Amino acid sequence: QLCVGVLALQGAFREHVAAVASLGATAREVRQLKDIEGIDALIIPGGESTTIGKLLNEWNMLEPLRQRILDGMPVYGSCAGLILLCRDIENSDQPRLGVLDATVRRNAFGRQVDSFETNLSIPEIGADPLPAVFIRAPVITGVGAGVKVLAEVNGQAVAVRQNNILATSFHPELTPDTRMHSYFLSFCGK
Ligand code: GLN
After folding, report:
1. Which of 130, 168, 181 is nearest to 18 (CA)?
2. Residue 124 confidence class, pLDDT cut points 50, 70, 90
3. Is 171 among the catalytic positions?
4. Contact (Cβ atoms closer than 8 angstroms) between residue 101 and residue 68
5. 41-77 pLDDT, tens per residue?
6. What is the chain's alpha carbon radius of gyration, rounded to the nearest angstrom?
7. Lower CB density within 10 Å: C or N end of the chain?
8. Phi-psi region of 33 (alpha: psi -120 to 50; beta: other; left: phi over 0)
9. 63 catalytic, yes or no?
C-alpha cells in the first residue's frame, strides 16, 4: 500500500492525513528524519512557512528531503508548503527546499482579503470547478520552462506542477473535495 508522509512539524497537517486516508493510502506523520524512510510521497501542509523552514533546518531535514525530491519522490505543498518548495521567495532569505523553479510572493492577497473561498477551474483534475480556500495565501509570480500552470486567480498562478512536484496556494484539504489529493497520488504510479 502507498505510504504518504505528511510533514507534521507545524500547521494544518491533520486534514491532509485525513484526505490521504480517505483515498485508501497510508498516511504517516513526518516529524523527524527517520520518518521519511520508506515513504512513497510527501505532503507539506499550510501553516507558517518561516516556522516550518526553521524547524526543517534545525532537525537537519532540509538536505535529505531535497535529495529525495530531486531523486523523483512526489511532493505536494499547499500554501506554506508551496512557499517552502519554491526556489525564489520575494524579499525573504528564509530556509526552503527550493526545488520548484518558481518565484513566490507571500501573503499576496493583502490584509483586506486575509482569506476567501472561490471555485477554480482546473482542467487537469476534472471538468467540475474545485472549491479552493485561500488563507493569507501566496501567489506564484514567475515560473521556469518546466513548470506547468494548472490554475490562476486574477491572472496569477495558484496551482503549478513541475514533474513530481505539485504546489497550490490554496487548501484543498479544508474541503471535502479530494480530487487534488487523488491527482497527486496518481504521480506515484501505484
Ligand atoms: N502566510 C503563510 C506563510 O507565508 C502561509 C499561510 C498558509 O499556509 N495558510 O507561510
Report:
1. 181
2. very high
3. yes
4. no
5. 999 999 999 999 999 999 999 999 999 999 999 999 9
6. 15
7. N
8. alpha
9. no
- pTM to 2 decimals? 0.97
| ipTM of the modeled complex | 0.94
Which residues, judged by CB distance below 6 Å to any ligand atom, belong to the binding site of ligand 1?
46-49, 79-80, 83, 106-107, 135-136
Distance 136 CA to ligand 1 centre (A): 6
Q: How far, in Å, from the CA of 50 to the mean position of ligand 1?
A: 9
Residue 15 is a catalytic residue: no
Q: Which segments within the chain are labelled E, that is strand? A: 3-7, 26-30, 41-44, 75-78, 86-89, 100-105, 115-120, 130-135, 139-143, 148-153, 156-162, 165-168
**Using 50, 70 and 90 to split pLDDT, how confident is the model at 110?**
confident
